[in-house]
Amino acid sequence: METLPRETIVDVLEGRLREEILTGRHPAGSYLPPERELAGGYGVTRTSPKHAFGRLVQAGLLETRHGVGTRVRDYVRLGGADLLPMPVRDSPDWVGEVFEVRRSIAALIAERTAARTQLADAEVHRALARATGNRVYGLLTNTLFNAYLPVRAVGAEEPRH
Question: What is the 3-state secondary structure (H, E, C) of the chain?
Fold first, then answer.
C-alpha cells in the first residue's frame, strides 16, 4: 500500500484560491482580500494565506506589492507553458484547447517527417491508416507506398532544407 498524501490548511487554501482564479471568480487585475481578512474568514492564522499567496505567486497566478496588496496576474497574457497543468487540471474548458494544439503539433510533426524522409513519412501514413481500422485506407496507403519504393530504389534523394 502507498501512503496517502495529507493536505495541510495551506494546501486547501491554495487550491481554493487557484480554482477561484482559474474559473474567473477573481479575474486578472483584481485584488484579493488582505491576508488578515482571508484568515478571519477561514478561521486560520494569518500565516496560512501568506503561504498560499506565496505559492500562487511562485506559480505565476498572483503578484504582491508591499503596502498595495495581492493582485491576480494576467496569466493568460503573461504566463508560459509551465502554467498549463493548473488550468487543465482545474478548469475542464481548457482541455479542448489542449487537444486543438496537440492536433496542430501532430500535423507539424508529420509535415517535418515528410520533409526529412519520404520513406518514414510513408510508414507513418501506413500506420495511421491501419489505426483507423478502415481497410480501404490501408490498401490505398499500401498502393501509394509500393508506388514510391521503385523511385526510392533508383536513387531518389530526400528533399534537403
Answer: CCCCCCCCHHHHHHHHHHHHHHCCCCCCCCECCCHHHHHHHHCCCCHHHHHHHHHHHHCCCEEEECCCEEEECCHHHHCCHHHCHHHHHHCCHHHHHHHHHHHHHHHHHHHHHHHHCHHHHHHHHHHHHHHHCCHHHHHHHHHHHHHHHHHHHCCCCCCCC
User: Which cell goes with 134?
Assistant: 478502415
Residue type, 84: L
Cα separation, 26 vs 65, whole angstroms: 17
C-alpha cell at 103: 492536433
pLDDT digits 0-9 by tens, 60-73 = 999 999 889 999 99
Q: For the whole model, what pTM was predicted?
A: 0.59
